[in-house]
Write a structure and sequence with these properties.
17 helices; globular; 6-stranded antiparallel beta sheet
């Protein structure tokens, strides 16, 4: 169906060198460290292509310790876990997206080999069934017996195969998907609509989405029938009726089902499915509200609407974070409404980046908000939580959200250093987003050549005396020949004053102070044009839904974490956050530190840093206050 904005072809957008690309590379290095044998082990086991008997009896011994259990994948990927095999789909999706961006032939070769081995397993299973667990799991859930989410696990595999087909050009993946679909078409054909509704009340993950993906490629009536059978009627109809069918329900189940409805609308054009998606967004976000990071869930469950003060325990979950970002991206593409880009940015900076350990690349399943919160990090091979998988995906594909296109031009939807290579009319176009980290600030600063130059060359203009209060971006245009088109620039929700936009240094454009909108710049662009964008920010507080006396601090789009292991009361008025916090450690050699503050006017003061920089420290995001001079009993 027609959308307001369109994703640009895979591979046309490249991340530029810098801290965010470093996070991407950290993820890629970890992805490649997982061995083929370990990824495939449970699939081989189920297909009868591998077995392991320890010492093999009393007369022989294991001769190669590297092949022994100590070096296998454990946690949720252990041969005794009912969820085994889910990480394979995440891995394939991430590998495909990384290849699409980097054209790295090594990762492509590894992923293609794994797909070929999955095909071998499918053939050994009879040509249709493919999973790391037996078909009996499906028969057991059909009889009402509990099994831990076999549909979810199959969905992840199908998702990975689909991404290998669309992003990495692996045709074998689509054939494997079609074989699996044949098994599910026959299996689901024995159930009545009521029986299917009962099955779908279990965690089905994104099965609806992958059937829609497959139907979009094949137009096979069997695949359309699977869409009909996996329609989550009980849930979708309740949303359309305006019910709050989310509070205290499993967000990790419901968000993928809505992504499925969104994809069905795209491949069938049936308006009901778009209505379901829009009703869900109203119920999950617009009417529910969210904490400062953007999350409406705690411990994988939806929190009550606008009443979250009693839910600052376990914290937001990464799968929910990632899948809500996917949904926001879809809605931005459908509508062109910048508020969805704002939501994506909030959850990227304070979710994806905050859930990933900046040194090891590992995942924190949950992200607490209350006093005494602490991130619990997974390991490379011993845990493999569901969030471990979405971490691989989230950090493999930032770039499709940065630039999008329409018939009139290009939109910059996310302010991430990157480069677009595109054709506009008959001209070859390159747009490069660069961030100025000396005269402005940006998240995830670190050492850079430009930073060293700024502090060593005395003939350059001096850098600001104190930490700047704005983000600065240079958008550079390269063209074969002059071309007229729109360049649309997103003004984020967090801007705190008049944005300043200039072209080639010639004064300021007349830009309205309108956060959550796009500024349209239409002109005949020429090679070498430079657009400078300055977005002012300030330290602000955001109240907690359900308790206006509790608040979080934000430095522009960055949620701050107070490094304290106990509940603390701050002194001052939240409406004047400069009464509560003061700048701290603002400069680190060659870069500015955004989000670094310390408390004012209290005993045992403590520091604040960006939530995404917290590693092993205990922290809190929400605080209460008392006015200066007020007594606390």
């Amino acid at each position: 169906m027609e959308s307001r904005l369109n994703e640009l072809p895979l591979g046309k957008i490249k991340l530029s060198e810098g801290p965010i690309k470093s996070r991407f590379e950290l993820n890629k290095t970890y992805l490649m460290s997982l061995t083929n044998d370990n990824l495939l082990r449970n699939f081989y086991l189920e297909a009868g292509l591998w077995s392991y008997s320890g010492n093999g009896g009393t007369t022989s011994a294991t001769t190669n310790k590297m092949d022994g259990p100590d070096h296998w994948h454990w946690g949720w990927e252990s041969p005794t876990c009912e969820l085994r095999g889910h990480i394979m789909g995440h891995w394939l999706s991430a590998a495909a997206k990384i290849y699409a961006q980097t054209q790295d032939s090594i990762i492509k070769g590894k992923a293609d080999y794994i797909v070929s081995e999955l095909a071998r397993c499918q053939e050994a299973n009879g040509g249709e069934w493919l999973a790391a667990f037996p078909q009996t799991y499906m028969h057991r859930i059909a009889k009402g017996k509990f099994v831990w989410a076999p549909h979810y696990t199959i969905h992840k595999l199908l998702m990975g195969l689909y991404d290998m087909y669309t992003a990495a050009g692996n045709a074998q993946s689509l054939r494997i998907m079609s074989g699996i679909a044949e098994w599910f078409y026959r299996w689901t054909g024995q159930f009545s609509e009521e029986q299917m509704d009962e099955l779908l009340d279990l965690e089905t993950g994104g099965m609806l989405e992958v059937w829609a993906d497959l139907y979009g490629e094949t137009r096979d009536e069997k695949h359309l029938a699977l869409i009909r059978r996996y329609d989550r009627r009980r849930f979708f109809d309740a949303l359309l009726a305006g019910e709050d069918c989310l509070t205290n329900k499993h967000a990790n189940t419901q968000i993928p089902e809505i992504l499925g409805a969104a994809r069905v609308w795209e491949v069938t054009g049936e308006e009901r499915y778009r209505n379901v998606v829009e009703a869900f967004w109203r119920c999950a976000v617009t009417e529910r509200g969210h904490v400062a990071t953007g999350a409406g869930d705690n411990g994988e469950l939806w929190m009550p609407k606008m009443d979250m003060a009693a839910r600052l325990g376990v914290g937001q979950e990464h799968c929910c974070n990632y899948n809500m970002m996917r949904l926001a991206h879809l809605l931005l593409r459908w509508t062109g409404d910048a508020s969805y880009g704002d939501y994506w940015e909030r959850r990227f900076i304070n979710g994806v980046l905050a859930h990933q350990h900046g040194g090891t690349g590992m995942i924190s399943y949950f992200l607490g908000m209350g006093p005494g919160s602490q991130k619990t990090w997974g390991s490379a091979t011993q845990h493999f939580w569901c969030c471990h998988g979405t971490l691989l995906q989230a950090n493999a594909s930032y770039e499709p959200q940065i630039f999008m296109g329409d018939k009139d031009g290009i939109s910059i939807c996310q302010w991430i250093p990157s480069e677009l290579h595109h054709r506009q009319a008959d001209s070859k176009l390159t747009i490069r987003i660069e961030q100025d980290g000396q005269y402005g600030i940006y998240p995830l600063n670190n050492w850079s050549v430009s930073g060293m130059t700024a502090i060593t060359k005395v003939d350059m203009p001096p850098i600001p005396v104190h930490r700047p209060d704005h983000f600065v971006y240079n958008v550079k245009i390269s063209l074969d020949s002059p071309s007229t088109f729109d360049l649309n620039l997103r003004l984020p929700w967090w801007i705190s004053g008049m944005p300043r936009i200039s072209i080639n240094g010639e004064g300021q454009l007349d830009v309205p102070m309108k956060p959550s909108s796009f500024v349209q710049v239409r002109r005949e662009w020429k090679d070498g044009d430079l657009v400078k964008v300055e977005l002012p920010k300030m330290l602000k507080t955001e109240p907690l839904p359900g308790n206006s006396g509790m608040f979080a601090f934000m430095d522009g789009p960055i949620v701050l974490a107070g490094l304290t292991d106990e509940e603390r009361i701050l002194v001052g008025e939240p409406s004047q956050p400069e009464e509560l916090l003061q700048p701290d450690r603002e400069r680190n050699h060659t870069w500015w530190n955004p989000g670094y503050y310390r408390t004012k006017g209290i005993d045992r003061g403590f520091r604040f840093i960006p939530l995404y920089e917290v590693k092993d420290e205990m922290y809190a995001v929400y605080f209460s206050h008392k006015s200066a001079g007020e007594r606390t009993e």
